[in-house]
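Changelog-adjacent note: as of this version, every example in the card shows the full chain rather than a window. The one below runs 238 residues end to end.
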Amino acid sequence: MSNWSKRRLISSIDWVGPAEQQDQIPLAKAAKKAGVKGFVPCGFITVCPPGGIMWLRDEKEIVYNQIRQLWIPYTLVDVGWWYQLAYPGLESGSIDYAMTSGNDEIVGDGDMPTTLIDLRDIGRYMAKIISDPRTLNKKIFAYNVVSTQNKIHELMEELSEEKIFRNYVPEQTIRSRAVVTRQASETYPFDTRKFVPRYLAEFQLSCFIRGDTNPEYAKYLGYHTTQELYPDFKPTGL
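Full-length structure tokens:
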């Protein structure tokens, strides 16, 4: 590994709460004073433009702007929707051990293309990203495959030989949830019972209604994709 890559600082601060994101600002100032050659703030969420679509995105962008104002070399890394959140549970419970959420909703018609990544691959991508000079002062989008919620359900039924109930949630329901949870979280911004439902509603709105995680949209927003940077990388299959 080059000296350049050894002098990089990767922030893995807890991304769940809005307050924790701001804690990276003094960390960035310390990195500047210490002469760190590359700062990787806690990104690692799905692609989405800033400005009122996802609160979590906007909180991260505040940190990114502080980094740029400090003139610190940086790399921003975002990822696809996790495999471990993407597939539905089975009535038999046979895959419960591998799931990180019990949410089995299909948003809209279930046909919006969405980028996906295995949680276990993020570290493997990062090993390449932080040792690659091409990623300095760039936005990187790491993902494995593109699929839809309907195709994932079909794949699960084929592999498990179990019938899966499809719980379709209309677009307007998701939009209404986003409005209600935004209002609740603004009143109690540091109450996890308030902001976690907001995060979920806004992720569903961004990923499965707006289609923000489309690789072509990511390129439009200025991201470089791992598919282009590392064509020989062998990701974990869905």
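Structural remarks: Residues 8-229 form a domain with the Rossmann fold fold (CATH 3.40.50.720).
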